[in-house]
């Protein structure tokens, strides 16, 4: 009887390479359509890998979008700066003409007109200064090709070479960018 019992137990088991599964119970039945624990673990691992990939992709897209926003903001600021520079560059001849008119103050009958022109000049310079315009100081400084344009060279033994002794036309910069260099007379001792 012991032998008959043993053979019945062996009949209830089926051999599967790498695992032993009972066919008598409802768990782990082969062909029943229900996944085994190993299959579920593999599936969970695949889903976890997919989740990590999607999370990485989302983070990269978020970083790309943040970079796009920053680049767009910078381009907008640069465009605004260029527009302001172009406007100021167009107004500079008006300032030059007003400066020339102010140099003729010796005539008595034009005193009222001169006062008006001087007010306009101050108003225009103030407006441009609010928009970032600065004058480039030249006389008494050393020639800098990034800020000055030498149009006359003069000898002066009392001054060192490269010293600016006269400004013929003012130079301007907007927010530290030179938009028009100063036209200057520079010492050049031979």
Summarize the structure.
This protein is of the alpha+beta class and 190 residues long.
**Poorly predicted regions:** 5-30
CATH class of the domain at 132-190: Mainly Beta
User: Strand pairing plus helix content: what structural class?
Assistant: alpha+beta
Distance between the termini: 129 Å
**CATH topology of the domain at 132-190, which one?**
Nucleotide Exchange Factor Grpe, Chain A, domain 2
Could you estimate the helical fraction of the residues in percent?
Answer: 40-55%
Task: Provide the CATH superfamily of the domain at 132-190.
Answer: Head domain of nucleotide exchange factor GrpE
* CATH architectural label of the domain at 132-190: Roll
How much is the radius of gyration in Å? 43 Å
For the report, how would you describe the main beta sheet? 3 strands, antiparallel
What sequence of helices (H) and strands (E) makes up the elements? Answer: HEEHHEEEEEE
Describe this structure as you would to a colleague.
It contains 3 helices and 8 strands. By secondary structure, the protein is an alpha+beta fold. It has a domain at 132-190: Nucleotide Exchange Factor Grpe, Chain A, domain 2 (Roll). The chain has a 3-stranded antiparallel beta sheet with strand order 3-6-7. Strands 4-8-5 form a 3-stranded mixed beta sheet, with no helix packed on it. It has a two-stranded antiparallel ribbon with strand order 1-2. Strand 1 (13-16) and strand 2 (19-22) form a beta hairpin. The relative contact order is 0.08. Residues 5-30 have low confidence and may be disordered.
């Amino acid at each position: 009887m012991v032998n008959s019992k043993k053979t019945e137990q062996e009949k209830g088991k089926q051999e599967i390479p790498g695992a032993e599964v009972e066919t008598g119970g409802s768990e782990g039945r082969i062909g029943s359509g229900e996944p085994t624990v190993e299959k579920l673990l593999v599936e969970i691992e695949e889903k976890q890998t997919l989740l990590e990939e999607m999370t990485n992709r989302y983070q990269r897209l978020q970083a790309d979008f943040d970079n796009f926003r920053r680049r767009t903001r910078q381009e907008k600021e640069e465009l605004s700066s260029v527009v302001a520079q172009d406007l100021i560059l167009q107004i500079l001849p008006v300032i030059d003409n007003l400066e020339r008119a102010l140099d003729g103050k010796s005539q008595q009958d034009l005193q009222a007109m001169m006062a008006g022109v001087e007010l306009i000049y101050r108003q225009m310079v103030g407006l441009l200064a609010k928009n970032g315009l600065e004058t480039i100081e030249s006389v008494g400084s050393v020639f800098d090709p990034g800020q000055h344009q030498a149009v006359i060279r003069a000898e002066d033994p009392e001054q060192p070479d490269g010293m600016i002794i006269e400004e013929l036309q003012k130079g301007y910069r907007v927010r530290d960018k030179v938009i028009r260099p100063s036209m200057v007379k520079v010492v050049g001792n031979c």
